[in-house]
Specification:
Low-confidence stretches: 9-16, 19-28, 380-387
Structural class: alpha/beta
Number of strands: 13
Order of helices and strands: HEHHEHEHEEHEEEEEEHHHHHHEE
Oligomer: single chain
Largest sheet: 9 strands, mixed
Strand content: 15-25%
Amino acid sequence: MAHDEQQAFDGLEPHVASAAGGSILQPPRSQEISADEIALYDRQIRLWGVRAQEKLRSANLLLVGMRALANEIAKNLMLAGIGSLTILDHHLVTEDDLGSQFFISELHVGMNRAAAAASQVRALNPRVALSVDMENILLKPPEFYSMFDLIIATDLDLSPLSMINAACRFVNKPFYAAGSHGMYGFVFADLITHEFVIEREKSNLCTTVKAETMTRSIIAANAKDLNGKQIEMVTKREIYSPINLANTSPLQSEQVSSRRRKLQVSPLLTCLRALWEFQALRQQSLPTHSHPDLELFTKLATEKHKELQLPPETLRSEFLRSFLQNVGSEIAPVTAFLGGQVAQDIINVLGQREQPIQNFLLFDSEDCKGPVYALHPIFPSLDGRVV
């Protein structure tokens, strides 16, 4: 470990661990939440309950990458009171990082990103066990992911995201991917199979066990009395697809069933797919403003738009230009929104409450829209049609 990186750890408590070759697991915590923690987390416990908070405080999460978006995710998860967090990044802090990453300063330039951010991350909530890993995530075997309850990978291109996603599926661990490009960004979730409970006031109609969509089913329904009201607790199950399949899957039939609906699909989906294809062809490099790069990206975007069966006029040259101008940059309000979305969804997933993201959320801050698209391989629909 470099001298400056060692200094970054000097102020940390003993349970903040560092390992160049891997994270160090912390001893398990008591399952029951203490009175002090109830007082500390009172406001959020009122929102999602003591049981959900107990699940949070026993969760061990891995966060890959420590750029601006990961900073926001780490901040929200630490303040929520998760059990332990490992931050992993093998890159060094550069001057470009100082513009939008709030855990580091000029003093950290040249240091490992994760090590540099560690002391400020821990200061958010000393109750959370923090670990730092400075090894390249691509060098980790699938077994590495088995020690975590959930994995989040940020600001990577499709190839490493697919590799991490496959490893998570191998050890049956839920996976999130997220990335930002200036005014634009995305969140992807592959929870493999996830069950959650929706609480609602009981209606006169009986809730039946059935398939609601091709990915979501009602598997149980129970009622309870709450202050004289009948509350129904509906348990649902969602199934997911890995990111490599989602990236090549068509839009759902209802989204392309009419011209009006096609016009509502964000061209950001097209541009994201074109960007990943560009990086695959150009050894993971981002497109520059050179004529060959612009020509190739435009060609790929046109092809992806056609594959999605979207009208050519929705892929405007103005949008392509704006997207390319934003690629690779970080804008704090955008990363704050995306980081909040990721953290909130993770909190709901760990607490098994509410409908999680299924499965691609796209954010266009210029239009202030964040549509969610369920992208899965083609299979028969509930009525026998192909979707």
